[in-house]
Amino acid sequence: MATGTQLVYDPANYYVWRASGGFSVHLSLPVVRELAAKIAVSAETRGILLGRALSTPFATTMVDDFVLVPPSEDLARARRAIEDTRRDLRVVGYFRSQPDGRLRLGTQDLQTFDRLFCENGNVGLLIRSPRGGHGEATLFYWQDGQPQPRDFGFGFPFDAMKLAGGHPGWRFPEPFEVDEDTPVRSLFPSSEFSGDAASEKVRWFRLLPTMALVVIGIVATQIAWNSRRPATQDPAPAESTSPATSAAYETALGLKVTSQPHQLEIRWNRASSVIAAAARGTLNITEAGVTEAVPFEARELREGYVAYTPKTNDVSIRFEVTGADGAATTESIRVVAIP
After folding, report:
1. For residue 130, cis peptide bond before it (omega within 30 degrees of 0)
2. Distance in angstroms (rounded) separating the CA atoms of residues 289 and 276
3. Which of 34, 74, 296, 331 could be a cystine partner for 300, CB 3.0 to 4.6 Å?
4. For the chain, which domains are there?
5. Are 52 and 84 in contact (CB under 8 A)?
6. For 99-143, how does the pLDDT look when each residue is reduced to its tens digit (9 = 90+)?
7. What span, in angstroms and rounded, lies between the C-alpha atoms of 152 and 37?
8. In this structure, are residues 272 and 323 in contact, taking their beta carbons and an 8 Å threshold?
């Protein structure tokens, strides 16, 4: 007797990141909580991720557990021991944490991926946990002999409470931290690399949107100066522009939205004087009458990018940036999908 598709997990207990091509990573929120507690004791931690691989309704790697591996223990030996004792879950990747610095795959990470976790769909989880909290993390996955994504890193707060609501996350450039004189190809003597770096970047841009979008730009720039400045210095609001047809940034923030499969790419002009002088910012995303406020620190604003997975076909985005002097600049866009 035919039956309907049944989920073998509770979606409410996972943070979901969807990559290109339909692949996704489901990160268990209990794992985030437990791992964050371990990292709070020791900022430099590493270990092996355990979980499952699903093929329907789309390719998914589920991260359901982890095993800490001491620095003195060999990862390959630890993996073999886990595979000999754990029958409920399988090895699906590895993780490591650091107290500071950019979250990028270094030479050792790339070799670890290639040597021990090179099955398609295996993931790498890098975590930064500075003193005082506000932990962040980034995800990578192995596909066709290479770590992915190639042209960006995907970041998100390493906080189970923030992730429970489906945090949109953000992107940042330069996902690999290797010497300029060392080609990435040479780091994988046993892997089958095909194509050059340029072709890998083109792969992303060849992706076509799954839905046609009519982007209605309603951009209003509002600058509120503090009481120390004369009222005559207040600039007039910028004229509305359409991000879909604008070839260059024409407003103070340069807010733009582009459609990609399963997500919206929200960009702003990270080189603008407003962003350079910013102290903080907030991205307010409204769907079906519900608004989610995503805060940004100054350094995050200078990345110039965030990815968001919409739940409806009508999304309103309001971006507000506040400078160190208290001046606030706001721009808004509404994105409507054609059914």
Report:
1. no
2. 32
3. 296
4. 11-205 (3.40.140.10), 213-337 (2.60.40.10)
5. no
6. 888 888 998 999 999 999 999 999 999 999 876 667 899 999 998
7. 28
8. no
